[in-house]
């Protein structure tokens, strides 16, 4: 069984037992959380699509870690204009283990 969920402005296709890194969620490590924005649920050939959410569908996950991604380097330059700008960014994430999908 798989599902498509929405969290942090992004959509993820998940299955039970899978580990994913999502935008930061304020939860403690080891805490069980429920994701209720389920866009679709599928199993084999059957697919249930919500309008926009599937009624009564939830995903249960456990928080494994809180961390920061690798640094993304931003470099801007205008040739012959003596303009150079360096910038960096590290995005926070929450690592989740998907425990169960209930439709």
UniProtKB/TrEMBL annotation:
Pfam families (alphabetical): Ribosomal_L21p
PROSITE patterns, A to Z: RIBOSOMAL_L21
Key words, A-Z: Ribonucleoprotein, Ribosomal protein, RNA-binding, rRNA-binding
Gene Ontology annotations for the cellular component aspect, listed alphabetically: ribosome
Stored SUPFAM superfamilies: L21p-like
Assigned protein family: Belongs to the bacterial ribosomal protein bL21 family.
Oligomeric form and interacting partners: Part of the 50S ribosomal subunit. Contacts protein L20.
Function: This protein binds to 23S rRNA in the presence of protein L20.
PANTHER family on file: 50S RIBOSOMAL PROTEIN L21 (PTHR21349), LARGE RIBOSOMAL SUBUNIT PROTEIN BL21M (PTHR21349:SF0)
Annotated HAMAP family: Ribosomal_bL21
Protein name: Large ribosomal subunit protein bL21
